[in-house]
Design goal:
Number of helices: 8
Radius of gyration: 17 Å
Number of strands: 9
Helix content: 40-55%
Length: 240
């Protein structure tokens, strides 16, 4: 382990111009209050709403030392965004999260503390353990999420309560190793990461989080992604 920890936040964005300024401010406040060294790597997939232009203004405000912009030419998928952004991370820990406020930066402090307690390889936020929860979803969306987790838990036995969650802290070398053998690129990417990590012997801890539906914009989850998820679970059953 490095003598001084540095946390690289990987933030894929697509049409998040209204969320980004407040999210970056909250990240800055969280890391500053907890005396943590950090950087934010924004991977924008050519958002038509001007997200990149907002990010450029934020970079001027917080300096290029803190805000690193790595835009791409089009919407190329969540998994590839993490792979791409990881190339530019200089921290020895990497945090992945959503840009739509479903993941509040205030939970980062608990994730960092938990990682330190037993030198965990991964700390993942969970909506389904302790005082974690989901807010702003209708009953149908909650049932889909719960059902997806139960399906994957039964089939894969991943050892975590929230396999479809995407708010996590990784040791950088662990994430690099797991990504190198991960095949999924879309919404099953997060699930495969945690399943692969377990099969490789990495240790994971959980931190309860409050998941809140996005403040602005529309959800990117549709019927196609649900089908992709189910296929991804079955595919992993055969390989892991």
């Amino acid at each position: 382990m490095f003598p001084t920890a540095k946390y690289s936040v990987l933030l894929p964005t697509y049409n998040e111009r209204r969320n980004l300024p407040v999210l970056v401010w909250l990240l800055h406040r969280t890391f500053t209050e907890n005396n943590l060294n950090w950087e934010l790597i924004i991977v924008d997939d050519a958002s038509p709403d001007g997200t990149l232009q907002v990010a450029q203004q934020l970079q001027k405000l917080y300096t290029p030392h803190r805000i690193i912009l790595k835009p791409r030419a089009g919407k190329l998928g969540l998994g590839t965004a993490y792979v791409y952004g990881l190339q530019y991370a200089t921290g020895n820990f990497v945090i992945i999260m959503d840009a739509d406020f479903s993941h509040h930066p205030k939970f980062i402090a608990s994730m960092v503390h938990t990682q330190k307690t037993a030198d965990y390889d991964i700390v993942t936020g969970t909506r389904y353990a302790g005082d974690g929860g989901v807010y702003g979803w209708d009953l149908k969306r909650k049932m889909i999420s719960r059902g997806a987790n139960l399906f994957a838990d039964t089939a894969l036995r991943p050892g975590v309560s929230d396999l479809t969650g995407s708010f996590r802290l990784y040791k950088r070398e662990v994430l690099q190793n797991v990504i190198s053998v991960t095949e999924s690129k879309g919404y099953t990417f997060q699930m495969e990461l945690i399943v692969r990590a377990k099969s490789m012997g990495y240790r994971t801890a959980e931190v309860p989080i409050s998941f809140v539906d996005r403040l602005y914009g529309e959800s990117k989850l549709g019927q196609e992604e649900i089908v992709e998820y189910a296929k991804g679970v079955l595919k992993l059953c055969l390989k892991v």
